[in-house]
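Summary for the steering committee. The consortium agreed at its last meeting that each partner would contribute one worked example illustrating the joint modelling workflow. Our contribution is presented below. We chose a case with several input lines so that the handling of multiple components could be demonstrated. No manual editing was applied between input and output; the record is shown as generated.
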Amino acid sequence: GAVVSQHPSRVICKSGTSVKIECRSLDFQATTMFWYRQFPKQSLMLMATSNEGSKATYEQGVEKDKFLINHASLTLSTLTVTSAHPEDSSFYICSARRGGGRGANVLTFGAGSRLTVL
Amino acid sequence: AQKITQTQPGMFVQEKEAVTLDCTYDTSDPSYGLFWYKQPSSGEMIFLIYQGSYDQQNATEGRYSLNFQKARKSANLVISASQLGDSAMYFCAMRGVQGAQKLVFGQGTRLTINP
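What follows is the complete predicted structure of the assembly.
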């Protein structure tokens, strides 16, 4: 089945530093990946759509310069939270779609990354 | 715009009973897909079931079935013979044509199975 690996699962950083989160599709190629953010006891909010080989598409209200997305290959997308502040503390989850076939409709999610900014 | 509504913040069910989690949606897209995901305390999102808007029959996957009522714009999840391991957050989500492949999620329902 389709597997998406996300790393790190937990990260604690100091305010003002940058943090990179990786999202990898392990057994399939993903031209498109999605980054979601989830606050405690709330739903998932789409932040941006990561497109392989091109710029990411950000949702309204999401700062491009704050949340840098790079999709350099068909199996890897990275989210970098720049100059992190305590309000950036959240659960970040990536997802990818396996193109074509029966699984084409389903998005597979990574296990998520819990960011805590001190 | 697409919107998903889950009106049950929490549900408590006895083990082995069936449970229905409600989901209503709103979209102007002629074609769309509806999904249910389970999120245990670990945080991972586990895909449960999918229903296409043009599917003639309600989707079923093991103990999960989707009660799709298109005219009422509802896509309720039914879990039969609930188990303790079913305790988790459950999210209904929708993908439309205009939204490419991105999913819009409902607020979620926290299901607790009591022994």
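The longest strand of chain A covers residues 44-51. The mean pLDDT of chain A is 91.
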